[in-house]
Design a protein that fits this description.
coiled coil; 2 helices; mainly alpha
Length: 99
């Protein structure tokens, strides 16, 4: 029996990049597996890396949506300010006509 070292890296807020996963997969694929336990460990490690990559993609989508929401809120605020100033100007104009 031979020991197999699987690397597990923990990230604070992010998961490994696609390049890191591909590199890790290439390295793990280059190791010859001698028994079913090693194969099973390699499969589990690859599954873990795939899930990490999917989570990273979802997090990226979430951040893009948050950014889009902030932009829309800023646009909405500008429109509201313009609308409020227009309403204020027309009220002042209307009051001047009545005087």
């Amino acid at each position: 029996m031979r020991l197999v070292c699987l690397h597990h890296i923990e990230y604070a807020d992010s998961t490994p990049s696609e390049d890191e996963v591909k590199t890790s997969v290439m390295i793990s694929n280059s190791l010859p597996a001698t028994n079913s336990e090693e194969l099973q460990l390699r499969r589990l490690d690859l599954e873990h890396q795939k899930i990490d990559l999917e989570l990273q993609k979802e997090r990226c989508k979430e951040l893009q949506l948050q950014l889009q929401l902030k932009r829309l809120c800023a646009q909405n605020d500008k429109v509201m300010m313009l609308t409020n100033s227009s309403v204020g100007q027309s009220l002042a104009w209307d009051l001047n006509l009545r005087s």
